[in-house]
From TrEMBL:
Protein's UniProt name: Olfactory receptor
Biological source species: Castor canadensis (American beaver)
GO molecular function: G protein-coupled receptor activity; olfactory receptor activity
Superkingdom as given in the UniProt entry: Eukaryota
The UniProt record lists the keyword Membrane: yes
GO cellular component, one term: plasma membrane
InterPro entries: GPCR_Rhodpsn, GPCR_Rhodpsn_7TM, Olfact_rcpt
Domain G-protein coupled receptors family 1 profile: 42-290
Keywords assigned: Cell membrane, G-protein coupled receptor, Membrane, Olfaction, Receptor, Sensory transduction, Transducer, Transmembrane, Transmembrane helix
Length: 332
């Protein structure tokens, strides 16, 4: 039952960084816009490279392509509205818009948890069963694993968003830069004890289950690597896992600090700072990590760049006589 007066909420106000001076908000807008564009370009480049280069058609890059697509979609759900709150005075978001933003935030966030676990399993098969790797991770299997990674996000996002937005709201000021669950839940004027239990248990399960799968995969990988006799072989095996481990660490550390902290330590400002790490910074770093730490991606980038230069040269050679003839043609 509701514990106070409440009215029908048609829109929410995102407080974002409104407490900061206008000059600082403009600086944040420029910084976040730059990061946003780098994120879109970096992840789009990973997708295009893994599609265009035949050397990157392995299961590992199939899952990397899924991760890059997920990061782009995740950013599109949050960043445009956040940028607008830093630039224009009107920071309102409709009731449906807020629910939609939260839905896609949980959908893509949960999907990333399970996709990272799937990528760890892929590395486990590649290192521990290299001879059977092409058979085990065939095209059909990798498609099923990708679908299985995305499906939990649909279930959790639907349940969580529908349940939370069925509550009555006493206020409409969301002290955050997007419609995240904790700041929206603070506006509810009803008994939310059961929902909070579900949220805590669900968060722990969703974070710990994929994390446990990743730990198990890398435990087996580490044992297999130490059995490799040559130092060069060990280094090569570790190098194929380094980028994924770094991405996993960035994602899980920032997520755990945000959602599995004691409630007494959860201040709105600290939550905003921590949320920036996995909503803004991590999606930008992922393509950079995979590009700088992966020789195959760097080589593919060089090949693609070389092809582009070659095509440009061919076009110039073909069009040059035509351009010359047009210039030399006498006017009437």
């Amino acid at each position: 039952m509701a514990t106070g007066n409440w009215t029908r909420i048609n829109a929410f106000i995102l407080m974002s960084f409104s407490s900061l001076p206008a000059e600082i908000q403009l600086s944040l807008f420029l910084a976040f816009l730059t990061i946003y564009l780098v994120t879109l370009m970096g992840n789009s480049l990973i997708i295009l490279l893994t599609l265009a280069d035949p050397m990157l058609h392995s299961p590992m890059y199939f899952f990397l392509r899924n991760l890059s697509f997920l990061e782009i979609a995740f950013n599109l759900a949050i960043m445009p509205k956040m940028l607008s709150t830093l630039l224009i005075p009107d920071t309102a978001i409709s009731f449906l818009g807020c629910a939609t933003q939260m839905y896609f935030f949980f959908f893509f966030g949960v999907a990333e948890c399970f996709l990272l676990a799937t990528m760890a399993y892929d590395r486990y098969v590649a290192i521990c069963s290299p001879l059977h790797y092409p058979v085990i991770m065939n095209q059909r299997t990798r498609a099923k694993l990708a679908a299985a990674s995305w499906f939990p996000g649909f279930l959790i996002a639907t349940l969580h968003t529908t349940w939370l937005f069925s509550f009555p709201f006493c206020d409409n000021k969301v002290n955050h830069f997007f419609c995240d669950s904790p700041p929206v839940l603070r506006l509810v004027c009803a008994d939310t004890a059961l929902f909070e239990i579900y949220a805590i248990v669900g968060t722990i399960v969703l974070v710990m289950l994929p994390c446990l799968l990743i730990v198990c995969s890398y435990t087996r990988i580490t044992i297999a690597i130490f059995k490799i006799p040559s130092a060069k072989g060990k280094h090569k095996a570790f190098s194929t896992c380094g980028s994924h481990l770094l991405v996993v660490s960035l994602f899980y550390i920032s997520t755990s600090l945000t959602y599995i902290r004691p409630k007494s330590n959860n201040s709105p400002e600290s939550n905003k700072l921590l949320s920036l790490s996995y909503t803004v910074v991590t999606p930008m770093l992922n393509p950079i990590i995979y590009s700088l730490r992966n020789n195959e991606v760097k080589n593919a980038l060089r090949r693609t760049f070389h092809k582009a230069l070659t095509l440009r040269t061919h076009f110039i050679v073909i069009l040059s006589p035509l351009y010359t003839s047009i210039r030399l043609k006498p006017s009437c």
